[in-house]
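Handout, section B. The chain below has 405 residues.
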Amino acid sequence: MLRRPLPLAILIFVLAEALFLIRLSVPHQFVFDEVHYVPAARALIALSGPTNIEHPLLGKSLIALGMLIFGDTPLGWRFMSTLAGSVTLVSMFATTWLITGRLSPSLIAAALTLLSFTLYVQARIAMLDGFMLAFLASAIAMIAWTLRAGGWWRWSTAAVLLGLAVGCKWLAAPYVAFAGAAFVICKLGDQRRFPGLPIWPALLVLGSVSGFAYLLTFAPAFFYTAEPLTLARLIPFQLEMYQRQTQVLPAHAYQSDWWSWPLLIRPIWYLYEPVDGAQRGILLLGNPAIMWSGLVAVAACWGGWIRHGSPRLFAAAALWTGSLGIWAVIPKSLGFYYYYFPSSIFIVLPIVLVLDHWRTRLRGADLVLLGIALALAVYFFPLLSAQALPDATAFRRWMWFSSWV
């Protein structure tokens, strides 16, 4: 039993942050959607007026904060993303510890999260998805803590974190409903869970507090020099955002269907061009060892829940399944692999819970998986970190399938 996880969690955070910061300024130009979000952050710093209105403000405000600290430089653009990545990693460690109470699966969860590839790439780019996931993962850890210890302040904190996640990207909104459903299912299954929290008051707090936290993220817009937001326009403005979110977009070379993401059929290149004196590339691709074994683990979790009624196996399977399933109903005209980012992290939980639940039968499997995942991380690292490549055709060395090109 790990009785004092905080010192270890702090160490994990520091080590992850150090890793994410290495060569963070390479490349010294916009990468992928930084072309949208860095100018939007500049507009927030200047309070010049609404920019990139299809997304809420919080993620762009955090990018702006990094720029205020370190300047309008690649380090300034991306620094806050590194913190978000480190928070996500620690949250996965904390959630696993709260579920299992054991050191080994908690460390494995942290290691697999770090080796997922997707966390490393997203922690080093000024995009909104990393901030959203940091708040989501923190909220999940807080909910897991509330499940064991109760307390209105823990539940309210989880609600705030969920609201802030929505304040980064609307993709987080379904997770508020997931949290409410999980609370009701757990509470009805055993009244000792979430001690001291009755169902209806808890749901009311979840909805109202998360909604209020979300609306607060629009505070900077009230101070724009052009077209400032007003209380009367706050709600109608949400409709404008929805219209932007659901507009039909032209076809894109790297678009892909949601069902293909878990299979790694079509990853996405964030960068592949000569920059900073060399040919460089950044490929957003999940670690095949983790992504594919994770699918087996999800199936095992569902099967284990059906056979044994294990609530933690159900929770892990349902979280990943729900995180992917929302894309089957979200009215987006185009899909891209980076939408799978939350799922690519949440898939770690089914893996570690399967390894823990059947640890006698699967003895040593965790080390084998970690070894393969680490070897693949070393192999793919040049395409994850924008290392200098020999020439423009060097990418072929890492292309396992033609659909990856």
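Note. The longest strand covers residues 268-275. Compare this with the example in section A.
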